[in-house]
Amino acid sequence: MKVLIAKPGLDGHDRGAKVVAQALRDAGVEVVYSGLKRTPDEIVQAAIQEDVDVVGLSVLSGAHVLLSRRVLEGLRAHGAEEVRVVVGGIIPPRDVEELRKLGVARVFPMGTPLPDIVAAFTKEARET
User: Fold this and answer.
1) How far apart are CA 83 and CA 75, in angstroms?
2) In degrees rounded to 5, what are phi and psi of residue 23?
3) Which domains does the chain have, with CATH numbers?
4) pLDDT of residue 125
């Protein structure tokens, strides 16, 4: 499994994204990190170029619904709808269902234990 961990929007805090990326690497997952302040289009292009299975969006700015929608739309527009999108960060419980309806595969709200995040990725890798 190959995962792109991406920081969309203007959020300048990436410690959590880097911690998740390292934990996934330690579990044997191939991880590409986008860096900070990426546009949805840049994330879509990186996902296609790197041929990833999953895009993990780390969003702390409150724009998780809009940014997720744009990434999902971009993937579909490029014929890459098989790439799963997961979202982590400051996600209010009221937004989880909306994200799922958009097509987000998993939501990891702030405070999700790191072993649970890693287990979700490694379980999915075994099932694909």
Assistant:
1) 7
2) -65, -40
3) 2-127 (3.40.50.280)
4) 54
